[in-house]
Design brief:
- By secondary structure, this protein is mostly helical.
- It is 90% helix and 0% strand.
- The protein is rod-shaped.
- The model has no long low-confidence stretch (mean pLDDT 92).
């Protein structure tokens, strides 16, 4: 993941490039829109960072669910008690992970 400072600087540089282009073509309305957007850069960066965090948490949640489905499939296919016990332990660990990710998502949505 890019550092926030680097991402913010890149975002500002892109908008400054757009501003320069808007000046070159003489589009005053577009210039004003870009200036207004730049004045709210902290808000945009905060929103972008939050959206990225939420996206990452959902990817983690989905990965845990996929792994759980695979373990449940293995459980259905095994007759070995030791293997079943180990798989059940893994499933419980993944359930705990999923609960934690859910708590993080809930906290992120309500922050």
């Amino acid at each position: 993941m890019l550092k926030t400072v680097t991402l913010e600087q890149r975002w500002k540089d892109d908008y400054l490039d757009l501003l320069n282009y808007a000046k070159q073509i003489g589009d005053v309305q577009w210039q004003n829109e870009i200036i207004q957007t730049l004045s709210k850069s902290a808000l945009y960066m905060q929103q972008t960072t939050l959206e990225y965090q939420i996206s990452q948490l959902w990817h983690q949640f989905d990965a845990v669910n996929k792994k759980m489905l695979e373990l449940y499939r293995q459980l259905r296919e095994t007759d070995n008690v030791y293997v079943s016990s180990r798989l059940i332990e893994e499933v419980w660990g993944l359930k705990l992970q999923r609960v934690e990710i859910g708590k993080q998502l809930n906290a992120t949505y309500h922050s």
